[in-house]
Amino acid sequence: MKKILAVALALVMMLAVCVPAFATDIATNGGTGDTTLQTLTTDEDGNPVAGFTVTIPATVDIPWGGTTEGDTLDWSYVSQLEAGKQLSISVDKASGSLTNGTDNLAYTLTGDAVGTAFTTGAAVCALTEKSINIAVSGWDDVPVGAYSDTLTFTVEVVDIV
Amino acid sequence: MKKVLSVALALVMLFAVCVPAFASQTITQPGQTPVDVVTLTTDINGNPAANFTVTIPATVSIPWYGTTGGDSINWSYTSQLNIGEQLQISLDKTSGNLTNGTDNLPYTLSGDAADAAYVTTDEVESANCSTAIAVTGWDDVPVGAYTDTVTFTVEVV
Fold first, then answer.
1. Measured between CB atoms, does A80 come within 8 Å of chain B?
2. Residue B15 lies in a domain
3. Is A92 near chain B, with CB under 8 Å?
4. Mean pLDDT throughout A115-126?
5. How much is the pLDDT for B51?
6. Would you list the DSSP string of B57-92?
7. Beta bridge partners of A105
8. Which chain A residues are closer than 8 Å to B150 by Cβ?
9. A68 touches chain B (CB under 8 A)
10. Sign of the dihedral through C-alpha A112, A113, A117, A118
11. A50, A120, B1, B107: least surrounded by Cβ within 10 Å?
């Protein structure tokens, strides 16, 4: 036991002598020394900085018979990711049925993120607005009422290829 | 041969007895005689005694967006130089780019040793100094580790 303690104490003493190289001393005439400036990926409170925001509407109201210019689902994104990363945004369907539980109104979607995931192409993207077109058919074939369906957006951070 | 050796040894003994004239003064008359006590500029081992140390950080970490109170290179010095000498501490740049190899974050330096070479005022002096770092363009580049090197040069002038 005494031998173990002696060895342990000796190791502690040796480690205490070791001075971490956090500073450089210049002590000669004409001598030089370097300081490296380096950014962190966290802010001053220690919070990770890289991030993004994809904004989608909670609800899209479609007037009966549709809008003359066409109905759309408007969404947007902004990002500041780490180098080499981009956003990949997709919708879970390209078509479906608005339903009241009994009757259905068929619809199709076209535009970015429909069918194929939309990728931002860069790590830093300013606020960009996007739009998905909604085409509903069969207005005359079903009782008038509230027909609904749900679209799911999926956002991922992926490598820029 | 024996006689030659005897004479040589006698001469050696005589020289050993002789005390060099520059080690002392012989006072033969009443009065005042000065003795100069003089310091050397070298220590007991013959090494120059004048010295200084300027201590700089190996790395300065800057949080993304910077620190609210400002970021800086904090350095210090202590000196004990020869009479009439002073330290002159300078940096190799007053501005530059922190880079990740692809993108850049511009920065400027100000304050001690940046605005102008820092020169001490006394031969014996110590102080803590600070060089401010201002980085711009945080929102324009991907988040990551961006670096650059600042070189300090110290001269005795």
1. yes
2. no
3. no
4. 97
5. 96
6. ESEEEE-TT--TT-EEEEEEEEEE--TT--EEEEES
7. A98
8. 34-37
9. no
10. positive
11. B1
Rounded Cα–Cα distance for residues B94 and B110 (Å): 7
Interface test mutation site (partner B, options A39, A78, A124, max chain B beta carbons within 10 A): A39
In chain A, the residue whose alpha carbon lies closest to the alpha carbon of B85 is A29
CB of A23 less than 8 A from some CB of B:
yes
Q: Is residue B17 part of a domain?
A: no
* Number of domains chain A is built from: 1
A11 vs B12, which has greater pLDDT?
A11
- Residue-wise pLDDT for A43-69, tens only, equals 999 999 999 999 999 999 999 999 999
> What radius of gyration do chain B's Cα atoms show?
31
The verdict on residue B114 lying in a domain is: yes
Over residues B3-24, mean pLDDT:
58
Domain residue limits at A110: 40-159
Tokens of residue B144, six digits: 């990551």
* Confidence class for position A1, pLDDT limits 50, 70, 90: confident
User: What confidence score (pLDDT) does residue B27 get?
Assistant: 86
**CB–CB of B74/B57 below 8 Å?**
yes
pLDDT in tens, B74-109: 999 999 999 999 999 999 999 999 999 999 999 999
| Nearest CB to B147; choose among A38, A80, A85 | A38
A85 close contact with B: CB closer than 8 A: yes
- Domain span at residue B138? 51-156
Taking contacts as CB-CB distances below 8 angstroms, the residues of chain A near B141 are 124
Residue B59 sits in a domain whose CATH number is: 2.60.40.1090
The pLDDT value recorded for residue B21 is 44
